[in-house]
Amino acid sequence: MNYRAVFKCIAGCEGEYDLEQAIYRCPKCGDLLEVAHDLAALKQHSADEWKKTFDGRYKRTEWPFGSAVWGKKEWVVPGVRDENIVSMDEGGTNLMWAERFGRELGMDELWIKMCGQSHTGSFKDLGMTVLVSVVRQMIADGKSVRAVACASTGDTSASLAAYGAAADIPTIVILPRGKVSTAQLVQPLANGALVLSLDTDFDGCMAIVQRLSAEEGVYLANSMNSLRLEGQKTVGIEIVQQFDWSVPDVIIIPGGNLGNVSALGAGFDMMEALGLISKRPRLVVAQAAAANPLYLAFKNKWEFQPVTAKPTLASAIQIGNPVSVKKAIRTLQKYNGIVEQATEAELADASARADLTGMFNCPHTGVALAALLKLRERGQIGPRDRVVVVSTANGLKFTDFKVAYHSSTLSGVPTTRANKPVDLPNDYDAVRRAIDTAEERIHAAQ
After folding, report:
1. 214: DSSP letter
2. Which of 57, 172, 278, 302 has the greatest CB tally within 10 Å of its CB?
């Protein structure tokens, strides 16, 4: 069947715009756009038929449906021709039962959605495959696109550079100098992007890239471009699919520029509209206390004011003026949402505590875990609630954070769970004594 999707204004202004048009805001009111689907056409298949279709494609080899994003193509961007799709088998990431950590918190079902297992190590791949595929089709159809550009605190730049390189499309990434990890910085360099390191923060980089994208031929790849969110919304659909089409009670996600939570809500909206689900989860956004404009708005009856973000270990969410804030607030109001914050000490300790149960968390996941701990302590999350924490990036991209924690060199942050190597001579007796001492400490702690 011929399914259709277009851009429409989130404020409800009349008019619709082709997905292959380089447009990011409503020309009438200046608000953001969103992708609107022809639900009437999609409803010609029953909910059970969609479930069977998506399950039959999931992680299979038929192009392009092996990707967990493109396996839901009709719900994402149905008009992209298969030959223009740029995919690296994104999605399909592990939904891990965090049994031991959950048990320590008195919870029966704590799950971690491991989005960092994607191609470039973050959930950004889910949206970037969609955006770059549409750009590739634009070029194939004769439209002029000289380069694709983004502002980034690390993960977006890595994803754009990788997918741009695969599609042979020049990419420009603008980063705040000194505010991304070494691993994040080297990813776009390795993929051949033009990397511009600016003496500013993310909000400053975002202002520059928006001006740049106003020029003809430079296409904007940040999440204010709703194509990104169409890919990212599949994480919510995939979570439900992995639970055999059952909805969890609570989902906790870190929030910076706030496209992620609005994308999460969009996925659940679509499943509900098409009859695949009959309940909604409660959505929780976790912010670093150093960059917490949404948390402050939540505490002030959703009255939003931007802030100047302070340095935080969770560098990818060090954003004081999030572009997608209106979408995020609308989503949280609909999904009985909560916003919680975490201090630097809280996020570092939560990350380390969870690591001791077998994880290896990025600092942004640490923010979400710290929010989980607070909500559990206050009784806002119950012992039998099925809870999913979205881990947005691979911990291996943040080894600087891990090394600093375990060497106790994080400025102003207590590292009570630091685990330092024990230097010994090449002597068996010294090794034996060290093991005995460690065992004594463990028994004493118990």
Report:
1. T
2. 172
